[in-house]
Every structure is written in structure tokens, then in C-alpha cells.
Amino acid sequence: MPLLRQVRRRRGLAELAKQHGLRLTSQRRVIFSILESANTHLNAKQILEEARKVAPGIDQVTVYRNLAVLKQLGVVDELDLLHLRGDEHYYEAKQTRAHSHVACLACGKVFEYYTPAMKRIHQELEREVGFSVSFSRIEIGGYCAACRDQGLAATPEASAAAKRRS
Amino acid sequence: MPLLRQVRRRRGLAELAKQHGLRLTSQRRVIFSILESANTHLNAKQILEEARKVAPGIDQVTVYRNLAVLKQLGVVDELDLLHLRGDEHYYEAKQTRAHSHVACLACGKVFEYYTPAMKRIHQELEREVGFSVSFSRIEIGGYCAACRDQGLAATPEASAAAKRRS
DNA sequence: GCAGCCATTGCAAAAATTTGCAATAATAGA
DNA sequence: TCTATTATTGCAAATTTTTGCAATGGCTGC
Q1: Cα separation of B147 and B119, whole Å?
Q2: Strand ranges, E, within B19-122
Q3: Helix (H, G, I), strand (E, B) or coil at B73
Q4: Cα–Cα distance measured from residue A20 to residue A103, given in angstroms and rounded to the nearest whole number
Q5: CA distance B22 to B15
Q6: DSSP H helical ranges for B55-112
Q7: What residues contact residue A83 under an 8 Å CB cut-off, 6+ apart?
Q8: CA–CA dist B20, B42 (Å, integer)
């Protein structure tokens, strides 16, 4: 059950779409505005429901296809936090800043984390392979301080416990 | 259509499963051995087909559930390369080494990339938040040298072209 | 403003994945 | 070795996501 989350964005999706040669259909307008005004995670079904309040005829397929388009444009990013949950996919709009998630394998908490090291990696790629970085994502799995203190880290029992909990 | 890829692993999946308190059923044995001997990407359907050659009665659901279990154990990792392709998920066994993928948004090529900076990030997390890193993944999107030379980078046309190509 | 091209849509159906539940079988402990 | 416990399986069905195709409607060029 994929989820969608909206994040700050400099320009409207509509403008961005136009810029990329996409047609601005009425359905697209609706979907875009839902994504832009949402402040929580939304999954495909929720988006569909919202959209139907405004445009009753809109089809599920259209929602999926437009999410796919936005993903391809690099505007939203489907992400599932290391697949810790297994069944939930999150979408989030690309942020300017290099972006990373650190997930505890024992308690399941996910932290956002920023480090200047990321910038260095970008520069390294630029310099050594001539690759120009548009965006990047780090996902790290491990055990947070609290769980380690409780002895939950890295043992088979901890994994089993985490599994049961999920 | 998720894909599976097998990667070097220090101990057998069976041993690992036991260690985590999982039961070693005959189906599991079959699935594990398929994963262990595969040297290309495999998707769920392919695994099922392989498994049925040995254990004709095995069900699709069993394959899915065991893949989920392995994911939760952190033994295989479902990954979809920045969702560039949109429809293909790749699984790969966790590697010891910090692991990263760099994908060109224009030509779609994916490079593997290793950098000592990753190690530094681990140490930083360890030192500053007391988080102990088990594994990590970097995914970077941008434009490779070749595509930049062809002027494909970062322009609306390039995105459209990349989209068409996919 | 109008015509034509072609991206986009809706529908129907396929494919992929997940879930509920009763039956089965792996494992620990007697 | 045998028994009880309970994880795991298979089946059926639900859910989610993708695909094929004809019809529609946005946009470009006139």
C-alpha cells in the first residue's frame, strides 16, 4: 500500500510538467493539486478518493500513470525506507538537499539525517567520473543507541523480536 | 516485476535462518538453494518456476512469503535503483561493503560506486548519535559524462527523451 | 480560431502481490 | 522416540498495480 508524502517544492507541478512537454489535462491538474496541498503521506487509493471529490469520473489507472510520470520526472520519489515495513511504499518529493534516512532495525524508528559528507561524495563523482549529481539518497540500517542499550542490537533474538513486532 | 539477484554470502541461508529461529521446511530449502545458486537476477515468477521443478506442489504465496522473511532478516534487499525503471524491482543480498548505485537519468545506465566517504558517514553516526550501522546504501541520480557531452543533461528535452526511451 | 497530431484517458482485463484460514509438519521437550 | 506447540504451507480470494486499446481532448502550427 504505497504512500505519498508531499514536501516543499519551489515551483508548481503544473509548471514543471509543462516545462517537460507534458500536457496539462484536467485530471492531471486535480492530481497535482492534491499532491501539492497534502501534508501527510497519501497512498494511491487516497489520492484517487480525493480526486474523485473534484472529478468523479477519474480513474485509478490515471492516478497510477501520473504518479509514474512524476517519478520519471524526478519530482516525486517512491521510497520504502529500506523495505523495513515490507508492505508500505512512501513517495516524497525530491528535496534540494541531499537526503538520507537512518532506520533502526530493532525498533523500526526512522531518522532523517544530513551530513556534509554527502556533498563531498557529489564532488568526488563530479571530479573523478564527470558525473553530475542531480539528487541523492542515503539509506542506512542499523541499531539506535536506545535499542543497543537494551541489548536488542544485532542478535538473532532482536531480529526475531523486530520481525514479530512488524 | 521484481527481480532477484544473488550475491556472495558468507554463510548459507539455511544456517542463517536456523540461527534466527526459523523452521527449515522443505520448501524453504528449495527456495534458499535456488537463491544461493542463481547468478542472475530472478523475479518471483522465475523462482517459483525453478522451485516447481524440484517441488511441484510449491505455491507462489510461499515464494513471496519467504522472500519477505529474507528481506526482514536483512539477507536480501529489494531495491529498485531509484525507481528509474518504474516497474522493475531488484533484490540483492546485502554486501559487507557499503554499496552504492549511481544512475544516469538520461541514458539509464547504472554504475556501482564505492567511496571511503561512506565509512566516514558510518563513523560520524556512531560517534554523534550512537547509532551502529549494519549496512547502508547510497543511490544517486544525475547525468553521466557521455550524456552531458551530448547535451542531454538536465534539459526538459532530455527528460522527455529519457521518458520515451523507458 | 481551427485542424490534425498524438499524448492521455477510461475501460476491461491481466498480472503481481498480499491476506485469511484451516491443514500440515518442524522442532523442542518429555 | 513420541507429543504438543506453533510456524509454515496451500488454497481461495482480496488488493494493488500494470497493460492493451479505442476514444478523447490538449496543444502546435497554420
Answers
A1: 30
A2: 41-42, 76-79, 90-93, 99-104, 110-113
A3: helix
A4: 35
A5: 10
A6: 60-73
A7: B71, B77, B78
A8: 25
* A118 grid coordinates: 554527502
Per-residue b or e along A125-149, where b marks 16 or more CB atoms closer than 10 Å to that residue's CB: beeeeebbbbbbbbbbbbbbeebbe
Best of B136, B147, B150, B157 to disrupt the A interface (most A CBs within 10 Å) is: B136
Site of grid cell 489507472:
A61
The three three-digit cell numbers of residue A83, written as one number:
523495505
| Residue numbers in B near A72 (CB within 8 A) | 84, 86, 159, 162-163, 166
Count CA atoms within 13 Å of residue B11 on its CB side: 7
Residue B60 sits at the chain A interface (C-beta within 8 Å):
no
Residue B5, strand partner residues: B41, B92
Cell numbers at B20, concatenated: 534466527
Task: Note down pLDDT in tens along chain A; length 166 residues.
Answer: 454 444 434 467 888 888 888 999 999 999 999 988 876 667 788 899 999 999 999 999 999 999 888 877 766 655 544 344 444 455 555 444 456 777 776 666 667 676 767 777 777 777 777 787 777 777 777 777 777 765 544 443 334 334 333 3
Q: Give the per-residue pLDDT at A28.
A: 95
Run of H or E including A151? none
pTM greater than 0.70: no
Of residues B107, B112, B68, the one with CA closest to residue B85:
B107
CA distance to partner chain A, nearest, from residue B8 (Å): 20
